Amino acid sequence: MKEQYKSGFVALIGRPNVGKSTLMNHLIGQKIAITSRKPQTTRNRIQTVYTSERGQIVFLDTPGIHKAKNKLGEYMVTAAESTIRDVDAVLWLVEPGGYIGAGEQHIAEVLERCGKPVVLVINKIDRADREKLPECADAYRKLYPFREILMVSALRGLHLNQVLDALYRLLPEGPQFFDEDTVTDQPLRQIAAELIREKALRSLGDEIPHGIAVTIEKMRERPDGSLTDIEANIICERESHKGIIIGKQGAMLKKIGSEARADIEKMLDGRVNLKLWVKVRKDWRDSDILMKNYGYDKKDLS
User: Fold this and answer.
1) Residues contributing to the annotated binding site for GTP
2) Which stretches does the entry tag as region G5 (predicted)?
3) C-alpha separations of 168 from 48, 55, 72, 117, 119 in Å
């Protein structure tokens, strides 16, 4: 049994908004990575751990690979591409469709340079025309020598066991890297910040979310254990954005806070007193110093 125990690191890659975080959350059975319908939801490399009798898979959820428009975008692409170099296998998520654009071509070139075994996962099949799925698989088969091509719905949990089976076939024999109870290396403060950002992403219009960050200024459990006090800042780039985030008579900020508190309480398994403020830091996504302050430090990627 021990001789056949598999372990290794697997990168989840793909263009923005293809469902990488949703897939990872479903595979490990717990919400760690935030999700929304907005592109570039994931900004940092997020590590989670799946452990079973067959082995241990350490998933690295990466930001979507895209054409960067600012320093934050460059950071996100670097995070994704540097992750690929350090793993044993790659899961490349795509959406159904026969057309392969410049974004997919670029990802294929990145993969060729790294030389890692790759499993293609065609996601969101619950929304696709089933008759056209073989055509999609054929188009990708011509693009890259995948070890396997799978079709799943991460949102519906369809065929996800096939993903795990494929990875166990690829990973080397090896020991556990983490305790069986470990599901992520993310600090609780960071997960809390991301949960707040998720609620803002889901509540606000299309323009503002790309320009927001969340910082946790205080996170402290009260001595009697009855409550955890959290104070957080939502950072935006424009005064006009600040007004939208706060909303009429504070309604939008209250909505974001209420929804985030519910998820954080679930994570901490206890009551939370959450206070939010909105601060303006103009063009922070092009400032190395501010990006570092908000948790996007290039040194962490080296």
Assistant:
1) 14-21, 61-65, 123-126
2) 152-154
3) 16, 8, 34, 12, 12
